[in-house]
Amino acid sequence: MRFFNISGVHRCLVLFGCLLFSSFAAALSSQKDSANNQLFSISSVPALKKNEGYLLINLDVGGVAPSIDLIRLYTSRGERYLLPGEPADTKGTEINIDLKDKEKGLYIMPITAGLYQISRVNAPYFSLPYYQDTDRAREWRISIREGKTNYAGTLLIEKQRSTHYVHVRLFNRIATDHAQIVQQLEQILPQAPLVSGSGVKDEFYQIWSESKE
Amino acid sequence: MQVVAVMLSISLVIFSACTRAASSAADFFQQPDMTHAKLSPNGAYVAAIRNLDGKQTLVLINTETAAQQVLLDLQELDTEDAQLNDIQWIGNTQIATQFLQSRQGVKDLLDTQSISSVLVISLPTSESEPATVRRFRTQGWIAAPMPEQENTLLYATSGLYSKLYTIDTRLLHTHSQRLSKLMKKDGGQFTKKNEVASVSGHAVRWFVDASANPVAVLNYKTANEIELNAIDEKGSTQLLASWKEDELMDRGETAEKKLIPIALADGKNSFYCLDLNEDERRTLYKVNFTDKREEVVFESASHKIVDLLINPTDGSLTGVKIIKNALLRTVYLGENKGFEIETDTLVATVGESKDKKVTLKYLEAHNRPGQFYLESAKRKQVIGQIFSSLPATFNAMQEQRYIDVEGLPIPYLLNYPKSATSSPAPQTLPLIVMPHGGPIGVYDSAYFDLVTQFFVANGYAVLRVNFRGSSGHTKALRDAGTKQWGDLMLTDIYRATKEAIDDPKINAQHVCLFGASYGGYATTSLLIQHPDLYRCGVSVAGVMDLNLYVNASGRSTQQDLWLQKHLGHFDNDYSKLMAMSPLYQVENLTRPLFILHGDKDEVVDIEHAYRLKFMLDKYNKPYRWQVLDDTGHDFGDADDMALLLQSVVDFIDENISAELDPNSAS
Fold first, then answer.
1. Which residue in the set B109, B112, B605 is minimally distant from A171, CB to CB?
2. pTM for the whole thing?
3. ipTM of the predicted structure?
4. How far, in Å, CA of B227 to CA of B24, rounded?
5. What is the pLDDT of residue A2?
6. Contact status, residue B631 vs residue B599, Cβ threshold 8 Å
7. Are B443 and B436 in contact (CB under 8 A)?
8. Number of residue pairs across A and B with CB atoms under 8 Å?
């Protein structure tokens, strides 16, 4: 927009419109951020709304103020994963999930159903480089199904780090963590059954669950 | 008479089966003893690093009398978790070693919690005197000793301008000396007057010839660009090669080799190089950076190469340093340079005196744990062993054979107790089939293998197959492993087993499998698919779900692409990988299985073991299960290894003659 070539009134209108739009967008964004950036302990889980599922994650994180950045990805026709060759195009704004002072264990968060990318793991240490880009790496994706408890994995952020490196991993451990999940989410799972929340195809839990019945 | 003879034979077999000689794992698996040894230029002494009472000790061995004295005991330096890495002679009266010690540092910042310094130890003038220990206060490393000058060496520093200095070690301060303000650090020797060469940018490595003349340097030109520069007699540099760091650090998506020099080779502008693009750096290349010719000179059996051992006298390659079970170890090179096709005995020259009258050698064979010995016109004398608690020679045999599978010769090794060759043979031997890990770029070495000899000492024959994908042999063998994880690799092992049991000394009814990592995958798969042949299996850190493995976090882009190329694509090959995963074949398991997995394993996550457990429980299959506490993707230290291997051999002993479980038939 060539701002300085339009008349004074028009300029004001445009400026006002821009300001209005940006404040509206900021409000919407901050509404999104505040609704979707908090992990809850298992003892205080909010109810799911329409089109939401639970993100369940096992945390083993250390450091001064760790956090992760999460962003939604476009998927074709509501698929749970990206189709072969499909680009990892993002949707909406990035949300930051604070992990500070989170003890080791299971945490849960209601979130809109869809496919998500953990795009960055933040592990600040005073002035040192503090993030690990996980960018569009498929192994750092989480798939959320409506009305389900979607197990995203065990997130490890090592407390001890070196100057230029932080050790971070996301382990798909639905079998390893299963006993702990079933025991702690005893009240939740009947309403929101446990499924794999891996962002890549992984049918193990489904196969095991079905054959048990 | 005939009936009596038959009954006698039967009772002999039963008796000997019950009393098969058992060697304890605790006796076998101990910390290595002598790990490094260097001969002084005049041949009068050998300096060696030994593990004594669990601590590293620098010892001095008189080559005439074999008398040994302690030069440096880490316990006396009063440091926890300190380590000595590498030793080299500075003239005939001093030894330099890199000394790594932990310190408090900044909380939670690991690279501030250890410090590396160079110690220079002067030989005592008499046996009753202690050695003098001096230390460099200036951070850097020793580039080379000066060959014609006692007490002088080339020392490298790295910074915005990286330099090489000649340093007189007698002017250094002692290790424990506190410096006052009047004292000059390191005798004030890091000055222009002592400067030999200089380059702009942080030097990673200086390359120095046998006369201690700098001939090349690997340095950072900018934060993102690394250069290899040749240095002429006048100190001028000439660019030989350059790399962008982001390309080197795996952000590219090509499978081209990225050969980085780590040591000088013979020939102008020739270097020994490692391929940064290799999944695990096990291959050593020799590259001429003028005409770009390259050749493979060595392949490590199963561990990553991190540095080289160069003979200071003639600059020849004498060994490689690897990381094994988180420790720095040395693999010595013989004339066959790590390819074991021709011989199963390794003799390597570790050092030679200047007058060539005394040579320090290293010897290893399939039945001989590594030992250092001195050779002169007068005699041969062993001065130290890698495993001093083990016999110098085991009563064991080894055969190297080949089997043709789908037109490709597949090498394999068969090891067994020597008693099996006596006439008449006391019994037929039970067989343990040990598929190696990897699977690509790893091989079973024909030299000494501790685990193999442990089983042989316990009365087993051991079959190790260098199935397709293995390194250490031909390129064709290695390349044939692409996408054959669950196909021809397993066929190779199966067919070699079938051939081995045709050997009259092998009991074809008593065959079990034991493997780790890919070996654990192969063990479980073969046990399920061929219960007619294999009676039981032990899997350590085995891959059980190939899709889970392909999608694990923690790999670089390059590693991920490599794995998809050699194992399978995470999407296009999903169904195929699923079909090849033992996890989804468990219903057909009819033989006993022992599953072990480290809870800190980040190469093959413990989730593989738990998923298998879920499926075994689902189908009511009996199994044994053990989580190895605080253990990564290796067997742990010597004590852990002893416990693990004892439980493995106990399980195999109990189950190798097991009948089919009637309750587990599908």
1. B605
2. 0.86
3. 0.84
4. 53
5. 28
6. yes
7. yes
8. 78
